[in-house]
């Protein structure tokens, strides 16, 4: 009998608990389930999109190997319009810019500008700025080059490339003294194992300067 009373008491407590907190618990459980379902949908969607962008990127790479300008343009357009936030699209845009330069400079500029404006990856957009600024320096569009080189917090591994390009800009502006300082800093910050140091040394030598003066 005592056991029956105890069971009845527990049942009464359970009924009271569900009467008071049942709606809140059901709402919480529903929210968790909806959240999980939403996460699974997003995860599956991302996986599906990654597969699609990989296929398009393969098509783009094949177009480069075939040297097919029409297919390069079409596959790059598909990547940029459908998957602008995927890093593979950024890589494709940089490859296309390299492929088109110097024979199709407008398309190269367009592709580099796309990378900069979308800014999916800071390091890659910095590379795009460096490449595009070199084109503008070559074309004597110095104000445009200067605006591209105003990079806040450049990636550490690319700092020497930025200093080298700033040296090119200073030289184009006939500011030899400033150019030498930039080149010397670029040489100092470039990895010792990189042949790029030899390239910078050659620039300094052409100005009658060494890497440490």
How would you explain this protein's 3D organization?
It is a single chain. The protein has 213 residues and is mainly alpha-helical. It has a domain at 27-120. It is built from nine helices and no strands. Helix 2 (69-82) packs antiparallel against helix 3 (87-100), helix 3 (87-100) packs antiparallel against helix 4 and helix 8 (176-189) runs antiparallel to helix 9 (196-206). Residues 36-45 have low confidence and may be disordered.
Quick take:
With 213 residues, this protein is mainly alpha-helical. It is 80% helix and 0% strand. The longest helix has 65 residues, at 2-66.
Entry keywords:
single chain; about 210 residues; mainly alpha; 9 helices; globular
Uncertain runs are 36-45
Query: Which percent range fits the helix content?
Result: over 70%
What is the chain-wise order of helices and strands?
HHHHHHHHH
C-alpha termini separation: 101 Å
> Which oligomeric form is depicted?
single chain
The beta-strand count equals 0
Radius of gyration (CA) equals: 29 Å
Q: How much strand? A: under 5%
Kindly report the average pLDDT value. Answer: 83
Major β-sheet, in short? none
Overall body shape:
globular
Summed up, the helix count is 9
Supply the helix-strand structural class. Answer: mainly alpha
């Amino acid at each position: 009998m005592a056991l029956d009373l105890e069971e009845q008491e527990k049942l009464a407590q359970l009924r009271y608990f569900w009467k008071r907190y049942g709606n809140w618990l059901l709402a919480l459980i529903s929210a968790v389930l909806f959240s999980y379902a939403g996460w699974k949908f997003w995860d599956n969607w991302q996986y599906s999109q990654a597969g699609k962008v990989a296929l398009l990127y393969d098509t783009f790479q094949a177009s480069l190997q075939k040297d097919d300008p029409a297919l390069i343009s079409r596959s790059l357009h598909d990547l940029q319009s459908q998957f602008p936030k995927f890093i593979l699209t950024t890589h494709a845009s940089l490859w296309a810019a390299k492929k088109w330069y110097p024979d199709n400079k407008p398309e190269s500029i367009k592709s580099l500008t796309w990378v900069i404006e979308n800014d999916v990856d800071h390091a890659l957009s910095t590379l795009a700025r460096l490449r595009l600024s070199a084109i503008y320096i070559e074309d004597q569009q110095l104000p445009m080059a200067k605006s591209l080189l105003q990079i806040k917090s450049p990636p550490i591994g690319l700092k020497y490339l930025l200093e080298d390009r700033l040296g090119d800009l200073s030289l184009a502006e006939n500011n030899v003294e400033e150019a030498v300082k930039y080149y010397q800093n670029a040489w100092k910050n470039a990895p010792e194992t990189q042949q790029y140091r030899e390239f910078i040394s050659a620039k300094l030598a052409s100005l009658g300067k060494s890497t440490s003066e």
